[in-house]
Design brief:
Layout: H1 32-41, H2 49-68, H3 73-112
Helix pairs in contact: 2-3
């Protein structure tokens, strides 16, 4: 079934409708929230778990090499400091991704409630003011 309801700049959408709604996934109004949620996760790593596991694996390797005498204690100490720096960078990146997501979600809430920067709430306060 051709999607009769969705339109694009050059004309009607030619994607196949997924169900009886007559809309394809990209144009179905009922799937707006699902598409938005999916888009908000696009391009982001799922978690930093793989990266953290790799750092831990390498750190355990260095610890073993220091214990076995294959790596000098001073070199092992510097490597430990570098691993700490790497873990800190991973944490900072995770926090920034969280903050970006919170801002995007807040903006979506503001749009959904008709509020914008400088809008006044039911108590006469601006959205940008702190309580």
């Amino acid at each position: 079934m051709i999607n009769p309801g969705g339109s694009t700049a050059p004309g009607h959408c030619r994607a196949t409708a997924n169900d009886e709604s007559g809309y394809c996934y990209a144009h179905d109004p009922a799937k707006t929230d699902e598409r938005r949620e999916s888009a908000s996760r696009a391009g982001r790593p799922r978690t930093g778990a793989d990266e953290i596991r790799a750092v831990k694996r390498d750190l355990w390797r260095v610890i073993g090499q220091v214990e076995d005498g294959q790596t000098e204690r001073g070199v092992g100490g510097v490597l430990g400091q570098l691993f700490n720096s790497l873990l800190r960078a991973i944490e900072v990146e995770r926090r920034q991704l969280e903050a970006d997501e919170i801002v995007a979600r807040l903006e979506a809430l503001e749009r959904g409630h008709g509020a914008s920067r400088g809008a006044i709430d039911d108590r006469g306060r601006r959205w940008t003011e702190q309580t």
